[in-house]
Amino acid sequence: MNVADTDRMELILFHSGYQRTQEKEDADLILVNTCSIREKAEQKTFSLFGGLKPLKAANPDLILGLTGCMGQQDGEKLLKRMPYLDFVLGPDQVEGIGKAVNRVHESEKPFVWTGFDSEKVYTIPEISGDLPQKPGASAFVNIIKGCDKFCTFCIVPFTRGREKSREPEELYQEIRHLIKQGAKEIILLGQNVNSYGKRGLNNPIPFHKLLYGIAEIPGLERLRFTTSHPNDFTRETIRAYRDLDVLMNHLHLPIQSGNNEILKSMRRDHTVEEYLELIDELKSEVPDVSLTTDIIVGFPGETDAQFQDTLKVMERVGYSSSFMFSYSPRPGTPANEFEDSVPEDVKKQRLQELIQLQNRLTEEQSNLYKGKTIEMLIEGNSGKPGYSFKGRNPQYWRVNATGGEGLYKPGDRVQVCIEQTSGHGLCGAIQ
Ligand code: 5AD
Ligand code: SF4
């Protein structure tokens, strides 16, 4: 989501004459688009600004802005801590980046501009014409913002506000525009894409209907979406996987924990059994589907036995890859009031165990691809010594390939015979 927001800000600034520099030393304006999902993300921001401070001291005309979720959460506090900042902008004010920069030019600084937009509908003003960069083969499209789930560990509902969907017509138009500019794959974005259509639409349609609508857009070759919530993930969406060739056979479905008591305390509002039922149904409709997930270890009160339940579920589902996190208390969230009872070293050890299991599962599954030919959408030059192109297969595995130089370009779909695996990726030769 932050990558998409950053692109959006770049687009707006590009239209008021700004261009991306290669080196931060050459910049007139530096924005740090921040994340506050875990404490570590916040620490990274502070250390990054530590490195930017001397640039500001050397050049007082340099504009320094902090945007994103940390801005929403900590506003004025950030100005106090980093008085050299010119402004702080919340994630719902991405569209206001041009105005924010103008305010600095008019010496109205420093300032904090946060809060949530009060419009009933969520529209992103269309910016036609040139783009700062041609879109890649794969492009993001925001379909819904905010989150109404309020999982007890999560700060997102506080930093990004309530759910609001964009009108389907606006989305179809944006996707047509991206395809005209060269995109082949569209990744629909939202904190909870399955909630699409529940709020803020004049002509409400559910998420799966949107998928069917988008699939008809000429020139679209691949469609994906992220992230999903098990409670809003419908049988109709499972059917969409079966019906729509462009919908790639991969689902990212966070489970967070494999234990019902922990899930309850996380306010995920579903059981492990309900989650597995969904997975089984999807696997039976779409046998070659790949699954990825998010997992938190060391949530308040998590016992060793409860952690073992998570390992069991992980093995049972057979994820191809996972985002695994150690629980990080977030100020203002309900879980912050629970006793953070799992010692840091236990959290660390559980995380290591989880990562080891995931590595084994990843290896087992990647080995199954050896000798098989898969389809890769070329995203760009490989960057890996000895390989020409990189891309992804339908199941979202990273693929590096040899051959095809001068014959193919980013955006082309090619057949690759997989010869070996490397960590979380597949390697092979273009046929
Ligand atoms: N601590 C650790 N992980 C978290 N996530 C969200 N909040 C926290 C937290 N407080 C993880 C969840 C979510 C992913 C985006 O980040 O797994 O799905
Ligand atoms: Fe956070 Fe996702 Fe839960 Fe929303 S659904 S509160 S974004 S973890």
| Helix content percent band | 25-40%
N-to-C order of helices and strands: HEHEHEHEEEHEHEHEHEHHEHEHEEEEE
Spans of at least 5 consecutive residues with low confidence: none
Average residue pLDDT: 95
DSSP strand tally:
17
Sheet with the most strands: spatial strand order: 13-14-15-17-16
Structural class: alpha/beta
Q: Provide the CATH top-level class of the largest domain.
A: Alpha Beta
Cα gyration radius (Å): 22 Å
Largest sheet: 5 strands, mixed, barrel
Q: How would you describe what is shown here?
A:
It contains twelve helices and 17 strands. It folds into three domains: 2-113, 3-Layer(aba) Sandwich (Rossmann fold); 138-367, tm_1862 like domain (pyruvate-formate lyase- activating enzyme), CATH 3.80.30; 373-430, OB fold (Dihydrolipoamide Acetyltransferase, E2P), CATH 2.40.50. The strands form five sheets. It has a five-stranded mixed β-barrel. A four-stranded parallel β-sheet has the order 1-2-3-4, with helices on both faces. Strand 13 and strand 14 form a beta hairpin. It is of the alpha/beta class. Helix content is 35%, strand content 20%. It has helices spanning 2-14, 39-58, 69-81, 97-105, 156-160, 168-180, 207-215, 235-243, 260-265, 272-285, 304-317, 344-367; strands spanning 29-34, 63-68, 87-89, 111-113, 138-142, 144-145, 164-165, 185-189, 222-226, 250-252, 290-297, 321-326, 373-381, 389-392, 398-402, 413-422, 425-430. The structure holds 5'-deoxyadenosine and iron/sulfur cluster.
